[in-house]
UniProtKB/TrEMBL annotation:
Pfam families: Tim17
InterPro entries: Pmp4 (IPR019531)
Protein name (Swiss-Prot/TrEMBL): PXMP4 protein
Taxonomic path: Eukaryota, Metazoa, Chordata, Craniata, Vertebrata
GO CC terms of this entry: peroxisomal membrane
Domain of life the protein comes from: Eukaryota
Amino acid sequence: MAGGEDPLRALLRAANALLQQRRYRAALAVIKGFRNGAVYGAKIRAPHALVMTFLFKSGSLREKLKAIAQATYAHSRNLAYFVFTYKGLMAVQSRLQGKKIPFHAFLAACIGGWLVFGENNPINSQIIMYLLSRILFGLSRLAVEKGYIPQPKQDPFPLVAALVWGTVLWLFEYHRETLQPSLQSSMTYLYEDSEVWHDLSDFLLYNKRTDSK
């Protein structure tokens, strides 16, 4: 039995020794980046797809589970491909120039974004909008930090919140087609379905009555 375990232990020792080799660090980081992208994408998308599918989509249980699996796979795959592409291009640029410079990150991410997230579909659209909101906040803070705009005397967040909600509800009420489908579904549930009921069952217990009364 011990003899059967020796090859496995030797393989593990060899693998661990390889992981400690500094000359392979960049390539190994690319591989682990692919792994982390796949895992993180699945962790983020699966709960979101589960909730949105069972809240707003019709169809059989099989169809709903299939939709959840497809959305989770797409998010996981795209994020894994992007991290792999980004880290690979960063390693190549650093090796060619002998050092890392800020433009490397921008260029590598632009290429990765074009190749991986360039297709206009619901998954990519949600990811891009998520990032866009964070970018706007980040650039605003950076502008203040660098002195390009003065430090606000009062917290601007209440004004931002008011403008964001005012704008999105105006769009929902008068230009609904400009909003993403999942946001339309959420807002329909909150602001339109709350105006329709027939009796106590679909006033408190359910959103919509399923019988034909």
